[in-house]
Amino acid sequence: MVTIRDVARAARVSVATVSRVQNNSSLVTEPTGRRVRRVAVRLGYSPHAAARSLSTRRTSSIGVLLPDLYGEFYAELIRGIDQTAQGHGYHLLIASSHNDKATIEAALQAMRGRVDGLIVMAPAPGAHVPVRNLPERFPVVLLNCNASGRTFDSIVLANREGARQMVHHLIALGHRRIAMITGPSRNYDATERRRGYHAALRAAGLRGSRRWEVPGDFTQGSGFEACRRLLNCKARPTAIFAGNDAMAIGALSALAEAGVGVPDQVAVAGFDDIPMARYMHPPLSTVRVDISALGERATRRLLDAVGNGRTHHNRRETLPVTLVIRESCGGRGRPAASSPR
Amino acid sequence: MVTIRDVARAARVSVATVSRVQNNSSLVTEPTGRRVRRVAVRLGYSPHAAARSLSTRRTSSIGVLLPDLYGEFYAELIRGIDQTAQGHGYHLLIASSHNDKATIEAALQAMRGRVDGLIVMAPAPGAHVPVRNLPERFPVVLLNCNASGRTFDSIVLANREGARQMVHHLIALGHRRIAMITGPSRNYDATERRRGYHAALRAAGLRGSRRWEVPGDFTQGSGFEACRRLLNCKARPTAIFAGNDAMAIGALSALAEAGVGVPDQVAVAGFDDIPMARYMHPPLSTVRVDISALGERATRRLLDAVGNGRTHHNRRETLPVTLVIRESCGGRGRPAASSPR
DNA sequence: CGGGTTCATGTAACCGATTACATCCCCCAC
DNA sequence: GTGGGGGATGTAATCGGTTACATGAACCCG
After folding, report:
1. Exposure winner among A56, A99, A138, B224, fewest CB in 10 A?
2. Do B74 and B65 touch, CB atoms closer than 8 A?
3. For residue A333, with 0-12 CB atoms within 10 Å meaning exposed, 13-18 middle and 19 or more buried, which class applies?
4. How far apart are CA B290 and CA B71, in angstroms?
5. CA B192 – CA B158 distance, rounded (Å)
6. How far apart are CA B15 and CA B10, in angstroms?
7. Mean of pLDDT values over B101-118
């Protein structure tokens, strides 16, 4: 390994000068700089990242703590985060499969000293608690957490409102028996979306039924199974709202297999608007989330905090969502304009 | 920030002892160890990663260089890599959106000194070349690269063979006019799959047509467009083989929109077997790739090299693929047993 | 011509860990 | 009692950068 001292010797200057050249300090004379650069290239020198971050106390990387990493959603999210980070000269240290408090705590511990800031997505209730143990002024942005205390910067989706609007839309289309395939019970997004569903039913004076709330786990397979259970209900629902697109797609599959027409016999809607949604048969109505923008936004917030040393604004930001009405729920067009069937 | 010296002072021992306790050295007395540990916890001490890796010359992380990060494929891949890495106490430094030689070179440069080894996925021709500039004994595993020189460890999919088998299957079902929606022309997997398609046609004495080879870019949208172009052909194909599942799904969507029955009027097949594939309507026949196993395998190979200092075995490993026949191409069951229609 | 200013460069302390080597203590055998 | 051995602990060098401060040369001006 060639070090800064090797370069300094070969270029007949001091290590300080080499360091200055590397960091584009203005205090170096043109010819000296050129000579040093040439030597550096010739020797194939590249600075040792660990040494540098030991003395600068900056790592130029940010940590990303994620839960189970399933499906298109996370690919989009990581893409959004990475592009923003790269644009600002930062690297990404990613740790996935962290769901509960214990593993998150371990992961946070392991990341200490490796990153300048953290994006933490911990949708399980209380899972974000270990974040409190981080050093006081360490920059953190929480993603889709139920950070009730408002002690952190956080970004959440307009889950409840989006779900409410979608279910409202279904009601406006004339549906009265509306089922929901819910996400994991211990998941913030899932419970919020469920609340939105309840709110919409309540607002319309409809009473939900326990039987029409079937649990899933955000995977296609669980949506498939849940839908089959719904089809066996005596009072079969005329519309199914799934907690995310993956489950909605599973449901579409179960309906197709059972020969149930969509949207004629049963309407279906999802949440997220993953890229796949519009290519379903029929194209899936869903609640659009700009996933990569979510990642980008979180990263900007974090880098802002990292850059100017400011830490917690303790600000919770809500990313709006929009209804995307395609054919899987019948009655195209704007919700309000749709006539009930 | 609390350092090892703070702990040493508070526990009335030397820094060496604290370091030994942290690293579970056997040279520490039971009571001393306990005292140090207690103090460390009380002060909230955790070792500075950069300092440690400066003196140990190990970072406990591996770098992952990826291209454009689209869709379920990459979520699965990252999951496989991360789980294996975590299991061995390694972290993941991920950099995406690196396609051409120039950006890959920059990314490699940026990763130097930050990681103990690299997994590089560079499907564009020649994109893996900058890897040669890495230090001699630096562990690297290439993923799906056309590493012709065999100068590196690499893992590739049985792209050509898988494509050949699938097209052969379509031929065995009686199809004669078989189109292909190809991936990006400058992509290793894409060109290999295309070669498999050609090989199968040739083996059956069929002549392909330029018109039946429509380019896509591995996204659903491109599959959709490509399929529409195929539908406008005078001699419309009776089967469509897509270079990956995302494009196959786009094609299914275009066919459904055009009212063309699948598999009755046109058979469709894809490649990858992303989780979504079996939930399509009709369920998508495809070539199964165990994506997360691919990531796991690459990581194992890399960590093996990192661990025992051994570097390039210069061994190219091929991950087998298997046909998964579902309903989108008609004639279920084993390929050979299917009767032509 | 002397003193002050400016600017390129050098010297060496420092970041926070690991670890080779030194030291010290205790115990045991002769 | 003394010398030797071994195990626990301490001291200080080291990893490879950054940067405060020192140095010294060139230049300007009164």
Report:
1. A56
2. no
3. exposed
4. 15
5. 9
6. 11
7. 88
Reported pTM: 0.90
Mention every residue, 6+ apart, whose C-beta is less than 8 A from residue B148. none
- Hey, is B323 helix, strand or coil? strand
User: Which amino acid would we find at residue B119?
Assistant: I
State the Cα angle at B108 between A2 and A89, rounded to 5°: 100
The residues facing B265 across adjacent strands are none
DSSP structural state of residue A152 = S
Dist CA B216 CA A340 (whole Å)? 40
By three-state DSSP, how is residue A94 classified?
strand
Interatomic distance A264 CA / C5 C1' (Å):
87
- Radius of gyration of chain A from its Cα atoms, rounded to whole angstroms: 26
A188 CB-to-strand D distance under 7 Å: no
Per-residue CB contacts under 7 A with strand C, chain B residues 37-56: 45, 47-48, 51-52, 54-56
Using 50 as the pLDDT threshold, list the residues of chain A that sit under it: 333-341
Whose C1' is closest to the CA of B54: which nucleotide?
D15
Least confident of A35-44, B7-16, B123-132, B193-202: B123-132
Using alpha carbons, select from A61, A298, A186 the residue that is nearest to residue B92: A61
Nearest to A153, CA basis, from A26, A333, A318: A318
- Which of the nucleotides in strand C have any atom less than 7 Å away from a protein CB atom? 7-12, 14-20
State whether residue B329 is helix, strand or coil: coil
